[in-house]
């Protein structure tokens, strides 16, 4: 009896679910029309898009121009900082940055810091605000791509800068400013080959001294020749009486 109760009454049966589709293949290109009530709801919630205006591109361009004219106070502060770096640096190098790891970039920063050089990276908009209407306006085309600037208060350390850049192929020198003069890459390298100011002054003083000494020697040349000729004439004239006296004594 217990086995009968256990098998017939206490046994649980899981329902069998089978999904059936009353139609065959669904037509995606021409679907079946929904029910009337559902069609009403779908029509009610359908989004309404505004038709584009015929002069929408012009209006969008004016709107973007107005947004660009909005001044950013933080960018103005950074632009003043850039202007301060430009005015107070005796040497500035403009570097095109290729892909470089942050670790390698930090090593370059340390190498430049040993020679009191600072490397800075600014956006194009900040550079435009910093140099518009100034003598540095010619550097704006250099910032079309990612560009860094290296500032140094001493222009005599240009050789150390070139040595650091030679060891870093990711940094490409494009141009530079030395003592307020804009130089190309070739002129920047040629300036590094020049001697320092003290040596150049010594060479100039030597050239000027040699030129003055040559002028003095040229002016005194005829006088010296005249003195030499007179001296030789006096010697010859003084030797003739002695020779006559010796000849008479022998006779």
TrEMBL record:
One of its GO terms (cellular component) is ribosome. This is Large ribosomal subunit protein uL10m. It comes from Culex tarsalis (Encephalitis mosquito). SUPFAM superfamilies: Ribosomal protein L10-like. Belongs to the universal ribosomal protein uL10 family. InterPro entries: Ribosomal_uL10, Ribosomal_uL10-like_sf, Ribosomal_uL10_bac_type. Coiled coil: none annotated. It comes from the Eukaryota. Pfam families: Ribosomal_L10. Keywords: Ribonucleoprotein, Ribosomal protein.
